[in-house]
């Protein structure tokens, strides 16, 4: 245990865009999606772990080339947030597929944290990313399917 400035920067960089929903909420009506409660808890636990663990666990041997996949995933995530803001802040844009990736705005943050775990040689961050992925991705898929089935 110990403070990691690099981990803190990654946590803030990956999770801060979600604050945009406070100031720029979707303009359309958000359909009510009902994910199983355990998945919602897993999602929230993963978000909390990914916010805190990278900052409070010291890195191991830093493997600098892993910054590239982490940065690519983060830039792609920011591009999707930009699409959301520019294309009218529609709720569907938060869950729209990109190429063959079904819910990229749920998958990319998991990729950022997994690459960060490899970059900082920190298995705790990897575990947090897996918890996030186990909850966030299924909840996003359920929400995406609800959106698709809503007239």
TrEMBL record:
Keyword Transmembrane helix assigned to the entry: answer is yes
Regions that span the bilayer: 7-24, 63-86, 98-118, 124-143
Q: Which UniProt keywords apply?
A: Membrane, Transmembrane, Transmembrane helix
Q: Please report the name of this protein according to its UniProt entry.
A: Uncharacterized protein
Supply the source organism for this entry: Microbacterium betulae
């Amino acid at each position: 245990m110990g403070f990691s400035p690099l981990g803190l920067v990654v946590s803030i960089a990956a999770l801060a865009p979600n604050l945009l929903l406070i100031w720029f909420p979707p303009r359309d009506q958000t359909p009510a999606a009902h994910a199983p409660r355990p998945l919602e808890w897993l999602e929230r636990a993963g978000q909390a772990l990914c916010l805190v663990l990278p900052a409070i666990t010291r890195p191991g041997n830093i493997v600098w080339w892993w910054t590239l996949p982490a940065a690519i995933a983060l830039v792609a995530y920011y591009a999707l947030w930009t699409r959301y803001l520019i294309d009218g802040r529609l709720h569907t844009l938060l869950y729209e597929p990109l190429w063959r990736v079904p819910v990229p705005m749920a998958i990319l943050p998991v990729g950022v944290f997994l690459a960060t775990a490899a970059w900082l040689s920190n298995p705790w961050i990897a575990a947090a990313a897996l918890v996030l992925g186990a909850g966030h991705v299924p909840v996003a898929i359920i929400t995406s399917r609800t959106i698709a089935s809503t007239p």
